[in-house]
């Protein structure tokens, strides 16, 4: 699942490693023209930085087979919007499929609470898929148990619940791997939609990208000069070669080899599991970011590193935007996105993508 020394769009996040306990309240500000400066509605546990890129990035190469997908729709009448989500996957040129995914439009698991809760995730396994399967089974339940708000939304409480859920899941996974005698690991990109707030958490090199439209004029129409959607990278990659990650690894006694890998083997520096590398600084502490759903949020794309090795963020947003304009359903769009990555652009890794479309009523 890994390639060393590849430049990625999310490298511009702040150098702060762990998520900050401070949560900045989203401020409302007037936006005019095509200003792509920081949007105060996107908050982060690791600093409020993000990347916003006009659609139209370059394409890279790849390949694979189109597989099944599952789509689902969730409605929130009083809030005036619906969202539809679908996942598609392909093992690419690999012999086995180590990605697993979660699509839960109603993720309350019958727990009491009146806030709508949706959950979507991709777990990209390495060394096997046992860690990925374990995280899929336990992470969301652990986040709910840790206190994800179900009655009154509190951003600080929600981020703490996600952080505690990741920590608890990794602790249990490590115990399970000891008793089972396996050493698998898994990166993750996860989304929780609570009421109208979207929370994104990631470890490793899986990525989430938001497609946002331009500001509107007084009549409510999008200005012509700003018509392309912006691609906003909501995650920060965690690789051993990056300075802040390398520093933690070295303080733990680990070595980042000339190939950019921890102990010459592992490219990512944060993951579930990887029991043999925990003593060298591998952690499962996620970066957590949040934003408020408004009329400008169009859709999100979650993808494992296989997808992003052949699609730039702007490129993927443009690809999905075109298919949406053609009136295709999300189930078809997700399959075509993965098929394009594998068949046409020659992705050699496992490839999984979730497309989440936000629609106003």
Automatic annotation (TrEMBL):
Composition bias, Basic and acidic residues: 1-10, 28-52
Catalytic activity: O-phospho-L-threonyl-[protein] + H2O = L-threonyl-[protein] + phosphate; O-phospho-L-seryl-[protein] + H2O = L-seryl-[protein] + phosphate
Pfam families per UniProt: PP2C (PF00481)
UniProt-annotated stretches for the region Disordered: 1-72
E.C. numbers: 3.1.3.16
Cofactor(s) of this protein: Mn(2+); Mg(2+)
Keyword Acetylation carried by entry: no
Domain of life: Eukaryota
SUPFAM superfamilies from the UniProt entry: PP2C-like (SSF81606)
Keywords: Hydrolase, Magnesium, Manganese, Metal-binding, Protein phosphatase
Boundaries of every PPM-type phosphatase domain copy: 84-358
Gene Ontology molecular-function annotations: metal ion binding; protein serine/threonine phosphatase activity
Protein family (similarity comment): Belongs to the PP2C family.
Protein name: protein-serine/threonine phosphatase
Upper taxonomic lineage: Eukaryota, Viridiplantae, Streptophyta, Embryophyta, Tracheophyta
């Amino acid at each position: 699942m890994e390639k060393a020394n590849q430049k990625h769009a999310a490298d511009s996040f702040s150098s702060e490693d762990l998520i900050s306990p401070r949560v900045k309240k989203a401020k409302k500000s007037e936006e005019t023209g095509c200003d792509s400066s920081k949007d105060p509605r996107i908050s982060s546990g690791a600093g409020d930085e993000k990347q916003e890129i006009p659609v139209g990035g370059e394409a890279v190469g790849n390949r694979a087979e189109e597989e099944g997908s599952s789509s689902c729709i969730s409605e929130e009448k009083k809030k005036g919007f619906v969202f539809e989500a679908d996942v598609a996957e392909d093992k690419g040129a690999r012999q086995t499929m180590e990605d697993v995914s979660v699509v839960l439009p109603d993720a309350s698991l019958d727990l009491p609470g009146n806030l709508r809760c949706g959950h979507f995730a991709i777990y990209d396994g390495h060394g096997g898929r046992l860690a990925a399967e374990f995280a899929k089974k336990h992470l969301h339940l652990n986040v709910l148990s840790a206190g994800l708000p179900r009655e009154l939304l509190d951003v600080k409480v929600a981020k703490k619940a996600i952080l505690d859920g990741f920590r608890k899941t990794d602790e249990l996974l490590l115990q399970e791997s000891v008793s089972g005698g396996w050493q698998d690991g898994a990166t993750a990109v996860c989304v929780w939609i609570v009421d109208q707030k979207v929370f994104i958490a990631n470890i490793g090199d899986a990525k989430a990208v938001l497609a946002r439209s331009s500001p509107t004029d007084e009549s409510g129409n999008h200005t012509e000069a700003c018509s392309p959607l912006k691609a906003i990278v909501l995650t920060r990659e965690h690789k051993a070669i990056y300075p802040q990650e390398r520093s933690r690894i070295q303080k733990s006694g680990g070595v980042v080899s000339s190939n950019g890998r921890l102990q010459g083997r592992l490219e990512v520096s944060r993951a579930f599991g990887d029991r043999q590398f925990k003593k060298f600084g591998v952690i499962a502490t996620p970066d957590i970011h949040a934003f408020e759903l408004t009329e400008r949020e169009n859709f999100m794309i979650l993808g494992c590193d296989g997808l992003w090795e052949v699609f730039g963020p702007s490129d993927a947003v443009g690809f999905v935007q075109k298919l949406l304009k053609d009136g295709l359903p999300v189930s078809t769009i997700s399959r075509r996105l993965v098929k394009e990555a594998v068949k046409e652009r020659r992705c050699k890794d496992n490839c999984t993508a979730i497309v989440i479309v936000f629609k106003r009523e």
